Amino acid sequence: MSPVSHDLKEQLSSLQHEAEEALAKALSLKEVEDLRIDFLGRKGRLTTIKRGVKDIAESERPLVGAFANEVSDAIEALIQKRLSSLKHEALEAQISQETLDVTMPGTFLPMGQLHPLTLVTEEIVNIFQGMGFSAIDDNVCPEVETEYYNFEALNFPPDHPARDMQDTFYTNVASNVLLRSQTSNAQIRYMECHQPPLRVVAPGRVYRNEEVSSRKGVMFHQIEGLLVDEKTTFSDLKGILHEFVRLFFGKERPTRFRNSFFPFTEPSAEVDVQCILCNGAGCRTCGHHGWLEILGAGMVDPNVLKGVGLDTDRYTGFAFGMGIERLAMLQYSIRDLRMFYTNDARFLRQFRGTD
Ligand code: DAH
Question: Among residues 200, 194, 211, 219, which one has the least CA distance to residue 144?
């Protein structure tokens, strides 16, 4: 080997040695990075030495070049080793400073829960789903509705008192646009775009211009049910509603069907259950009658079916509608409907779902 080559190799070896010493003294990541630039950078010391390779005999260049690469790799490995030991030391220092007392109590994270009206709605929908009904998506049946869907298509005559300004909130969008006063609009909306057999329930908000009291509000919730098929009878309706009462109240409950009137059903009925507080003896909740009204129902009036283009010789159906607040009040013995809307956490916290 020529003296020039020999000298280059010497320089490379001592560079590696120097790097080793310098790195051992480096105390921060920044210092290590600076050393990397100094030794291996584009304008660093290794590059400078490597420039000398072109001055040596061609036959010796590969050997010296390979040695330069070895030195470069060795210095890089030293850098990595120093970096990881510095990081490790930093972590150790941090851990030894932080003391963790595993016996300390945890931080309480308040958890939200479903509103009692949501729970009761889900329970009612579940019961009907168990009997083959499906739930109509909320946005299929608008709360801002036209007189046609809220009244006319439901066979309300033009002079029916419920249409009166006193009961129904009309909007100033147009003279026939109102806030729906019942979920029965769902019947028309659904029948307009679906063919029998139909079995649906539709929960939602309704609005009435009522004096606010412990039993009435200007906004409340209803759930509508509709079944249309061939040969549907009133006894099918009774069977379904009896089963609903049994499942909702958790046990057999005396139930009675009273004659009633709704423009869109014929015959119509109102359904009462024996008062769940006094078991029929008479108390304040049931107005000393022993019975509580829970829903309205009936066979869909043929005029309504004709209005949506159904063949009334072939199809019959029944419908029912119930107030969700009322059922929730009975279920949980709540005496004032306004409790549902005041968002008092002490009240709301009492209702746990089945999760
Ligand atoms: N929509 C009625 C109301 O708000 C309740 C009702 C009665 C709904 C009879 C029905 C029904 O579907 O068949 O008072």
Answer: 219
